[in-house]
Amino acid sequence: MAVIALFDLDGTVLTFDGAAPGPGRTAMGRASRELYGDDHTQGIRFAGGTDRAIARALLDRAGLPFDEDKVQALIDRYLEHLEVELARRPYRAIGDVAGTVTACTERGARVGLATGNVRRGAAIKLASAGLGDVFDLSRGGYGCDHEVRAEVVRIAIARCGREGPVVVVGDTLQDVAAARAAGAHAVGVAVNQATRDELIAAGADAIVDRCDRALVDALFRVAAWR
Ligand SMILES: [Mg+2]
To answer: Which of 95, 114, 155, 202 would staple 173 via disulfide (CB 3.0–4.6 Å)?
Structure first.
């Protein structure tokens, strides 16, 4: 049975140079200012969240009731600002992402995405890092599919064909929790000791520090567990 390997994007596959806020948060802040007169992103945790959940939190902070049209308008404006911002400050890959995906595929895995980004946002971010052709976006669960990350993982699994053991690769405890809730294994990508400790506490099956051979080995090792 084919192993299904689902990658998170931000902080796992993609990072940015320069000071925070990163391109995503910057773009959402601009969309908020444009639509609601102020940047309502302060205090919202973006890492590990889904775009729909971030939009819900932002509307709440703006004192507006949740409404599907408002969510769509906010995400549409966000995507326009994201493209502009990424032309100036693109994302870059964390390690050898293309080589990692190729190695997973060569060992028989089905590689997909489980990300809080809406699908178009995922495509824009990957393209900015030169990774536009690396993932098959039809094998993904996205922030436009569901607000709850565990559901995003379940949708990604269904789109990958539900075949064999599933391993989620992510950088936040939300990735690990979503993997657990969906019956999947979790490999954490940690850039520092604090993140490493957090991911271990959340129940990650293995921890690596970037997309490389060690990640591929860890992924297949945990996939073989019962
Ligand atoms: Mg992430």
So the answer is: 202
Name the 3-class secondary structure at 154.
Answer: helix
Amino acid at position 176, single letter: V
Per residue in 87-130, pLDDT tens?
999 999 999 999 999 999 999 999 999 999 999 999 999 999 99
Count of alpha carbons within 13 angstroms of residue 206, beta-carbon side: 21
114 Cα–ligand 1 center, Å? 10
Q: Is the model's pTM score more than 0.70? A: yes
pLDDT digit string, tens, across residues 63-76: 999 999 999 999 99
Query: What is the whole-number distance in angstroms between the Cα of residue 119 and the centre of ligand 1?
Result: 15
**List of E strands, the chain:** 4-7, 14-16, 91-93, 110-114, 140-141, 166-170, 185-189, 206-208
Query: What is the 33 CA–ligand 1 centroid distance (Å)?
Result: 25
